[in-house]
Specification:
The structure is a single chain. By secondary structure, the protein is mostly helical. About 85% of the residues lie in helices and about 0% in strands. Helix 3 runs antiparallel to helix 4.
Length: about 130
């Protein structure tokens, strides 16, 4: 038995008015579209950034990132002291960002690396 004949048989047995059939079909379509929208929203949520944007903390985040990259490049180029100062400023900025976001992992990671770099800077100041 083909699908077409089965659908025809169901329609012949259905005593619902045409308006009732349309209402049922619309309800089925509405339900399908809601499920499709929920799936699409899940995909958007998965790929959407979870960090806040647009505030002072967002600007500080990017400044801190640039300072960290500059610091690493300066250290690699043999300008250790300037690189360490840049990286220490970056670590301080990241601790601030972690505080704004209430993200302890960012604060701890930045505080530890910043402290290690600042210990080297203090040694340089003492030797100077």
């Amino acid at each position: 038995m083909s699908d077409k004949s089965f659908k025809d048989q169901v329609k012949s047995l259905d005593t619902t008015s045409r308006a009732g059939q349309l209402a049922r079909d619309l309800n089925i379509e509405r339900h399908r579209l809601k499920e499709e929208l929920a799936e699409a929203q899940e995909q958007v949520d998965i790929f959407a950034p979870s960090t806040p944007t647009g505030g002072v903390d967002s600007i500080v985040k990017w400044v801190a990132t640039v300072l960290a990259v500059i610091g690493v490049f300066l250290i690699s180029a043999g300008l250790g002291t300037l690189g360490q100062v840049s990286y220490a400023c970056s670590a301080i900025a990241w601790v601030y960002v972690g505080h704004c976001w209430n993200d302890k992992a960012i604060m701890i990671g930045s505080a530890i690396t910043g402290t290690a770099v600042m210990m080297n800077l203090v040694e340089l100041l003492i030797a100077f």
